[in-house]
């Protein structure tokens, strides 16, 4: 039987109990093994705490344990009989917005946490906005610390309503809300006995059953060429294969294809799946494609079915999240990495910066600094076969890199091109 | 504006059973013509990482210890470039306290695939007086210097490691592409954000990138993949009789490296190894699991993590792994 995998990210403000929620999720779903639990008990006792502090299960760095906050994104793995989970556990503090962006970039679902006493705050709106921008298909709002508001349904209902209205406005389509107490375990894995009025799934039940939005197979096929395989051996004197991972769609032997940005056309002669020939391959399989014609193809090219090939462009409009400590400025020369292609580029314009509190666009900010989300226009030295991020998270995304030392400056999500 | 589909549990739960979507989920997995197993997805992701490094770096090397994770890495690399040979050489940091069965496996594998093996020897450093034996006799922390010297001397710019994020909570913070400075140091607070599957391998001369293709694999995934692909392993991974003694709650193999000490007695037990490392700090576990199926069943039921069960050096302090990684260890 195939057990599928849900990739999800968590986000919450400082001190709203996110590490405790994640610790509770891992602990109560039996994903924590005895020696890990002993280590947490030992450390908790050493700090004079009576009960094991579940946050210590996840805060892995010295600085995190010293400060009692999560600094960097961490990945955790657990499974239930229903499903496997890859959890990107991301920090909530405003200065680590880039880490939430990192976690959200590959997530099928985001868990946003709020403190029941404080309700929807600016950080909550920021997390919802990031989830929407990164096109995370599902959002779960967990209203934590329900024990501190007397488990009142009205408190939960008001927060759920406010968040749902806001997230809907952002364009998030699938929203689920769950009242929890991470400290006591109410509605995390086990249903709460303190909130009879809630009839919905626990957080884990929802994670186990929510449909994973892998729609990539309905999309047009895209194969960014990573590497040309040419053995030039006695057994394979003429073998020339284009190695790459199918980022979306399905590819068939005999299909007419176009290689971009050159625009040369050919036909798929064979598809080798890690050494074995196949007739069809689909995302996210890593394959080696052979073409009928000896056309020039190299790393950085994109192979796509001729009927649904993207257009190429040297003018890129995009939303970017600035992830570096040094700013991004107009006129700056950068490298743009899109799929397997890295090209020189220049930042032509920074039309606006997003104010996350009210989602308004502040015009002409002049530069973007760490954790800013803004609009940019970039011109590239060579054409790119770029999809809109709205159509493809893989072929619609790119990095801006400082050519001087390789620092990743910004993560970009492309607009639809003409 | 599109109307959101809201599942506000208390209000909207048409089935009334708390599982409004279970049916959808089952339909999707059963009905899709393009489904893949989780091992297929992990394999494809790892192959993608190997090919990215081949496409972007000048001098990559695979750290190869003869342990199961590095064996799986080599297997993936062989598949990634088929029918061409693997375009990387191998590097083994030999602590001088390796299991003979593992060294034999290492040399046989290298010969079979026509690969080039670099060896960085801890014993050589000790013999030359450049490293000193620790009072506790463990050589694991001593590996860092020969490893970083080997990387610098051979000018490797990408170094594949078999580290998995599920192993340990400091490793859970590790990137797939992890930039190291010219001293091989890891600074967890200054890591590059890693988004989508866009890996940034840019580095200055003297710096290198550690690459972890198995980041998203768990111990169980590794064993299931070994089973699916029928990959040969050194025999010490399977139950066998061995002379061991108890130290710090673990069964260590008796040998020239320095055990047993005073008050420690040797006994014969049926054991196997969950990890393969330096003999002075890698413990065996009591086990009758002599086949892949038995090993998988044993791991699935185990209440101890791989490292908790078998690695003494991770217990030195709460942040032992983080501290070693900062200095250049994997």
UniProtKB/TrEMBL annotation, chain A:
Matches recorded under SUPFAM superfamilies: EF-Tu/eEF-1alpha/eIF2-gamma C-terminal domain (SSF50465), P-loop containing nucleoside triphosphate hydrolases (SSF52540), Translation proteins (SSF50447)
GO biological process: sulfur compound metabolic process
EC number of the protein: 2.7.7.4
InterPro entries per UniProt: CysN_GTP-bd, CysN_II, CysN_NoDQ_III, G_TR_CS, GTP-eEF1A_C, P-loop_NTPase, SO4_adenylTrfase_lsu, T_Tr_GTP-bd_dom
Molecular function GO terms recorded: ATP binding; GTP binding; GTPase activity; sulfate adenylyltransferase (ATP) activity
Keywords from the UniProt entry: ATP-binding, GTP-binding, Nucleotide-binding, Nucleotidyltransferase, Transferase
Pfam families reported in the protein's UniProt record: GTP-eEF1A_C (PF22594), GTP_EFTU (PF00009)
Top-level lineage group: Bacteria
The keyword Metal-binding belongs to this UniProt entry's keyword annotation: no
Residue ranges of coiled coil: none
Tr-type G domain ranges (all copies): 3-218
PANTHER family reported in the protein's UniProt record: TRANSLATION FACTOR
The protein's name: sulfate adenylyltransferase
Upper taxonomic lineage: Bacteria, Bacillati, Actinomycetota, Actinomycetes, Kitasatosporales
